[in-house]
Amino acid sequence: MPHPNFFNLDTTDGGLPRNLAPGIDTTIYAGDQAMISVVRFAPGSVGSIHHHPEEQWGFCQSGSGVRIQDGARIPVSAGDFWLTPGDVAHGMEAGADGMVVIDVFSPPRGDYKNAGGGFAAAEA
C-alpha cells in the first residue's frame, strides 16, 4: 500500500523482518505506544519458553498449535486470541499445518525495533 501507516498481512512492506527461531519468522510494525508482530510458524516449529516485561496479546489468524503459558499447554486454532501479562513465561508450538499469529505488544519491545534473530528476551 502506498499510503504511510497502512499495511497488509500478505506482504512485508513497511515492516522489519526478524527470524525468531528455526521455522519462525516475523515482521515487526512499531508505533509509539504499541507494536504488531506478524509471526509465521512452519509446521511443527517450536518457540522457546521466554518472558519479557511488555504485555502481549496474541491472535491465531490461521493454522493451529499449542500456546504454552505460565506452565499450562493450551491448544489454539484460527480465531483464538489470548493475553500474556508482562513477565509471564510463554512459548508456542505450531501444529502440523503451521500457523500465523499476530502479536500486539504494549509498550513496544525495544529489542524488536532492530533487525536480528532470536526472541531477545529472557529464557524461562
Gist of the model:
This protein has 124 residues and is an all-beta fold.
Task: Tell me what you see in this structure.
With 124 residues, this protein is an all-beta fold. It is built from no helices and 10 strands. Strands 1, 2, 3, 4, 5, 6, 7, 8, 9 and 10 form a 10-stranded mixed sheet that branches. A hairpin with a 2-residue loop joins β5 and β6. It is globular and about 40 Å long. The protein starts with 15 loop residues before the first strand and ends with a strand. The model has no long low-confidence stretch (mean pLDDT 93).
Ends apart, CA distance between termini: 39 Å
Mean pLDDT over all positions: 93
Give me the number of helical elements. 0
Low-confidence stretches: none
User: What's the number of extended β-strand segments?
Assistant: 10
Helical residues, percent? under 10%
SS-based class = mainly beta
Q: How would you spell out the order of helices and strands?
A: EEEEEEEEEE
What is the gyration radius calculated from CA atoms? 14 Å
Task: Please give the largest β-sheet.
Answer: 10 strands, mixed
Beta-strand proportion = over 45%
Give the overall shape: globular
